[in-house]
Queue: 2 jobs
Job 1
Amino acid sequence: MCRKRLSGLAVAWRISVVLGVGILFTSLLSSAGVAEQESRRVPLIYCSDLFHPPDDPDDWFDLATAFSIDEFDIRGIVLDQGEKQMQRTGRIPIEQMMAITGKKVQSVYGLSNKLKSPSDKALDQPQEFQKGAKLIISVLQESDKKVTLIAVGSLRDVCAAFNRAPRLLKAKVERLYVVAGHSDGGNEYNVGLDPHAYVGVMRSGLPIYWLPCFGREPFVSKWGFRQGDLLGSWSLRIQNYFAYGLMKADPTKVDPILVLFKPIPEEVKKKAWGMRRSMWSTPAFIDGAGRKMVVLDGRWRALPGKHVRQRNRAFGFVPAKVTVNDKGITRFDDIDLNSSEPNMLVFRFEGTLDDYNKAMRQSLEGLLKELGR
Ligand SMILES: [Ca+2]
């Protein structure tokens, strides 16, 4: 009896040892996985002239793209042009995205007035609109990793933050994607919002990835699609998010969160789905997250780098010395691709413009496909 009982205890002990080792091993493996995942996370600050109702709804697509990529740890969103934000807040689409994804992201209003010079610190602008430049500085100070910035719109808050803390930005900015400007001498909308800010940023010496919005091919990031071609394959919540912005819904009449779950009226689809949309920033999000472009089963996808053995190229960035004049103009001759002293990386698409459009359309479709399901 006694012997039997002892051996029973021994068996139980062995089982518990095996189980314990198993649990220890599994938890070591999963914590290694979590650590690996964490090390691939990209701290991101996103600066955008995102409004509701939108100026240009491309910013709504870009916001959804930022939220769709789990490698991004979005540390903050700076909403461009603070005074205008008070009337037409970009917080509405951000709140919708937070409700859809469960992610929490802080957002602040940026500087409201144009910079007076490329070196303007903008400390004399109203206190209520200082939060953008302050957020950029505090996120960089607090982050133990370098931080990536993606900036569209006026670039005012990035420029003011740099003018206030140039050494901090040089030390802590991993990459600064500038989605603004023209590669062949033309004026461009984002530059026009604040020419001094654009000039200050482009001359900053920060690690700039420049995506010219217009100009000489292939140094142009613009692409486009018919909205219905993509919206139809996304979840009801995502469709409602876009319908809300595109139809300029009134938040005092239609709740932006409750509406996400409702069926979409046919007349709304008829109107919004048929519109064409021009886009500029998608490659910045894909590249900034470390995603790789790849063709799988005949379709372009932007996948996490570790899943990609053979990458296909839809776009890339080439080193160049770029000169920008005091008005924010860069002629094509001012982009020196052979310089031994490049000051930034310049976007270029690969193949034809049609190839690039197709690659972006299909990869955006894939990126947003799982959102809200
Ligand atoms: Ca915009």
Job 2
Amino acid sequence: MRDIWVFIEQDSGVVEESSLEVLTKAREIADARGYLVTGVLLGRGVRGIAGGLGRYGAHRVIVVEHPILESYLGEPYASVMGDLIGERNPDYFLASATRNGRDLAGRLAVRFRTGLQAHVVNLDIAEDGSLVGHVPGFGGNIVAVVRNVRGRPQMATVALGVFRPREAWGEAEVEVVEAKLDPSKLRARRVEVVRRGYVDLSKSRRVVVGGMGTGGDLTLVRELAKIIQADVGVSRPLSDIGVAPKDIYIGSTGVSLNADLAVIVGVSGAPHFVSGIRNVRTVISINKDPEAPIAEYSDYFAVGDLFEIIPKLIEKLRRGV
Ligand SMILES: Cc1cc2nc3c(=O)[nH]c(=O)nc-3n(C[C@H](O)[C@H](O)[C@H](O)COP(=O)(O)OP(=O)(O)OC[C@H]3O[C@@H](n4cnc5c(N)ncnc54)[C@H](O)[C@@H]3O)c2cc1C
């Protein structure tokens, strides 16, 4: 039976929710094709959470425990996962496109000389068994349908927030495998863990997004967000120039929003950006250019200077009118 492996990312025993998104999607594909879904969980003291992953779609979970695996580190994770793949030879390997997932998948694809579909926004397995991913390409103007033609396992990283995790199945069978790790051979070790605590915007209900039109000053964006109890996101160039962290930029190479409301200010609406707002229920945008492409993707479009409109909006919201 064909086997779809899903990397279950965790940090100190807390599972990354986007891994569950991938797990559920993998199970939906597996059910349609009669395949098996295996979650692979690397960590320290994590076997207690393995069985519960079955509820999100895993038929079985392979657990590897070692103190070094407590949080993600590229070298030991790729070594352990690579050895497991080498021994068991799964047909498919999927990871969520978090930084760690992308790092791991890239390392493994090189080791196994196999194709890796990066950041797919949709995923399926064709009748002939080839993994088929949808990858936004050419500036987002097209969605390229990509198929693996050679190499095993067939691999993909899955964009965050495009699939929803479902608790629809029973407990998974758990197999604990001994870690074959020689710490003395590792070239990097964890010195300190710094947690920045940014919110996962793919889960936010309300988001205010600032673009280059803000001139890199997010004061008003943050103020508006606070009043309407929203989280703050940006377009990618603001991350690129260091105004905002990479974790909070929206778009095909960033986060896909699933919010009820997004207020988008000073963003032109380039294809790469708008692919991250397709699942937003209500989009309100402010732009001084009446021809800005974002208008086409907005339910409400205000033409004007954000530095004039937002303060008035904030004042009205404060007064409750
Ligand atoms: C491979 C690749 C991947 C990419 N991935 C992403 C991605 O995931 N996410 C992403 O965002 N981008 C991505 N980009 C970049 C993307 O193509 C655009 O360049 C980017 O989205 C533009 O950001 P922006 O709209 O903030 O800036 P701009 O395009 O410069 O737009 C600024 C907007 O602000 C308006 N404006 C200016 N001043 C004001 C004002 N005072 N009041 C109101 N409006 C004002 C302007 O009219 C303009 O419409 C990617 C590019 C490439 C090549």
